[in-house]
Amino acid sequence: MPKIANPRLAVTAFLALSALISYSTPMRVTANPASSGGLSKIDHIVIVIQENRSFNNLFEGFPNAATSKTGACDGQTITLSQVPLATGWDISHAFQDAKTAVDYGKMDGFCHESSAGGKDTQYSFVREKDVAPYWKLAQQYALGDKMFASQLDGSFVAHQYLIAGQAGGAYYLPNYEPWGCDGNPDFRVGIMNGAATSPQGGLPVGVAFPCFTYKSIADELDAAGLSWRSYSPRYCPKVHCLTSYSWDGFDAIKDIREGPDWKKDVVSPETQILRDVKKGKLADVTWVIPSDKLSDHAGSDSKLGPSWVASIVNTIGESGFWPSTAIFVVWDDWGGWYDGVAPPQLDWDGLGVRVPLLCISPYAKSNYVDHTQYEFGSLLKIIESRFDLPSLGQTDARAAAPTSCFDFSRKPRAFTEIPAPYPAQYLIAHHGTGEPDNQ
User: Fold this and answer.
1) Of the four listed, 42, 108, 357, 439, which is most buried by Cβ atoms within 10 Å?
2) Percent over 70 (pLDDT), the chain
3) Exposed, middle or buried, 115 (CB in 10 Å: 0-12/13-18/19+)?
4) Which residues contact 11 (CB under 8 A, 6 or more apart)?
5) Residue 432's pLDDT is what?
6) How far from 110 is each of 54, 95, 96, CA to CA, in Å?
């Protein structure tokens, strides 16, 4: 298997061209928030996206969760090593890497992913002290240990699934950045035969400009007159900053990127959410994408991710929005890190490797490990369920909404601050991506 020096900045040149993929417009209805049972107590859904960690990598040893201290490599047992959260090296984590690692459920091919950290560094877990805010959140609220990525792929495809339940058959990354409609006209992303149904199947059929016309959940929210925001890093030409900007999946949705929503609802910098919440502003549905230095991405050489997530939770928790808000924290892909729980293979592109899911709310169960099978479509499903929106007809149609982590029979509990090494103001001042710039 060819080695990939840096999966985030791949410059693979595709030779064939294909037409831009388009999909039919889903039926739109007016929202009826009162029809969703206990969920009607939730007025705001916030989805905080982190980067590139498997469940076992962040939560190895968490009580009542399915984790392992050993992994498999071609039938041989490897004892997992402990690593710091901050690393200056990365692991290859593209479509072929996921297929190789999962190996039709054997979960013994992670050793064949290319790792700049050296032999068997894929078989590692993070020191608990480095991710203490995540463990505290899991202890205080709920942790899903059967959350699988909807896709066998990395960040570009993952962020599409998180907002649209599909990626139009796309695989791997666009050959240059930015990864969206504002890229140069000759930019391309690979396209698979999305009609394939065999596990880990699918054949490359060509390439397309990474700007798609399928509908996202934001289109459903707009049609229902509901508000949404995506807080994401601003565009800038520097390597790491550019990569962070590319993580916003809405950049690759044509009607969002080229319409009024881009200036109205896609907000930069990502740290603006902290200011907005303090000013009394929070949309019905919110996505938050980290900058490179505020992410958990291997190779970012940063340990700030847990403090960043804690700052969002603390800011909302200490605001008037807390009694009516549900926050979900999810990681966009496994980042190449070992995980021993085999994902069910539902189609050619997934399910992918297991990632953590945190469910945080005044109604969330306390110190609860949710063993329900979820995927990225589950987050779309709970938005649809809460606001009575039609299904996009993609992974949301098959996924279970993550409602098992709640107990709506109880009174909403008061918020308790999550301790973190770095305060919000430090993150804003030193590691945000600057002033708003969505031009």
Assistant:
1) 357
2) 86
3) buried
4) 175, 176
5) 66
6) 12, 13, 11
Contact present, 162 and 232 (Cβ < 8 Å): no
> What is the average pLDDT value for the chain, to the nearest integer?
88
Each residue of 214-245: pLDDT tens digit?
999 999 999 999 999 999 998 776 665 666 78
CB 90 within 8 A of CB 298: yes
24's CB contacts (< 8 A; 6+ apart) are: none
List, in sequence order, every residue forming a beta bridge with 204; answer none if it has no partner.
192
**Distance of alpha carbon 285 from alpha carbon 225, whole angstroms:** 12
Model pTM?
A: 0.90
Own/partner contacts of 95-98, CB < 8 Å, gap of 24 or more, are 95/152, 95/153, 95/154, 95/157, 95/171, 95/172, 96/1, 97/1, 97/4, 97/336, 98/152, 98/153, 98/333, 98/334, 98/352, 98/353
Written as one letter, the residue type at 3 is K
- 3-state class (DSSP) for residue 149: coil
DSSP 45: E
Residues 223 and 237: their CA atoms lie apart, in Å, by 34
| E strands present in 75-138 | 76-79, 81-83, 124-126
What distances in angstroms separate CA 47 from CA 267, 320, 347, 358, 364, one per listed residue? 15, 18, 25, 10, 15
Please give the pLDDT value at position 238. 66
Token pair 């990626």 is found at 167
Looking only at the bridges linking them, the beta strands covering 357-360 and 266-267 are unpaired
Collect all residues with Cβ–Cβ distance below 8 Å to 367 and sequence separation of at least 6: 138, 139, 140
